Amino acid sequence: MKITDYKTTRAVVIERPHVANLRNIQLTEPRPDAFVAKTLFSAISTGTDMKTYKGMQHPEQCYYPLVPGYETAGIVVAVPEAGTDLSRIPESARNLKVGDRVMINECRQYGDVCAAWGGGSEYTIKDSFTTNDQFDYMVKIPDNVSYEQAVLAYLACVPLKGIKRLTLRPHETIVVIGAGMVGISAIQELKILEPTLQVISVERNAFRRSIAAKYADIVCSPEEAESVIREATNGKMADQLMECSGNPEVVGGLHRLIKDGGWGDDDIPAHIHLQGDYPDKIIFDHYHRWFVKNATITMTCALRAGCKEQVLQWISEGKFDTSGLPYEVWPVSKCKEAFEYQEKAGADCFKILFDWSK
Length: 358
Description:
This protein has ten helices and 15 strands. It is of the alpha/beta class.
């Protein structure tokens, strides 16, 4: 098929809060620099997508009906004609060919529904109108990496961007709050980048603590966290902390888990990085408890250029391990039931992937 022949597609559509369907939608008119990809596997993000499904997104961000999802992988089915100006496309993505296996990810525009953060469609047009040139571009999947692994790779890119804001020093203690896909990925990436780190996972849900135990040095519940961290650090507390739970109620008391510091030029203060997607206001504990910490607080959203390539390389080399992640594969035809199941199961369901052949 020619690029211009792609006018409609099946897509997962959230019609309104708590109602998801698989139905046809309109695609945008492809620009000359358009690539077209066919989705073979996608996923439900237990953070962003479920926040959208529950009607918790702020109205300036999206409207209903909308296409959720940004964790997608498949094959290239159409490419621009020879000689087309591809200057807005990163060089690594310009040479993709029909049949290449790729991470597809975001689509910012559809024809007759809101794209939200886009991607949950069987066919996706990737051009200078529907994608940005920062990190929306497609990336070729290594031969020894499966489509399912490539879907999981996307959310692993999110904490990697955040980790770039930290300074990883040998033998420090870093606490990761939350053991969903973002938190588990952060734990693995911290250990890959600085193997001498002591990484402590704090997670409320027992099922997710059992997953974190495969990757972190120490795992505990929030109720145990303060005493466990104190014992593991001989009273010093955490050097750095990544908050990956997305629970706004957690953030205000994080001062309890980090070290004192910053009083002298050679006294490095603690660093807290906020990685969660928080649906409500964050209210900090009494300021004097924060003030004396002299802590650095940073935040990041989404990912950055190069993260997809790095995570795929780590998976290919066996450094980033997906074997301990208990995802479920559902036929995309059951997307309505899958969203209902995910909402009911909550943290007891780690991850749902959709198989678009069923």
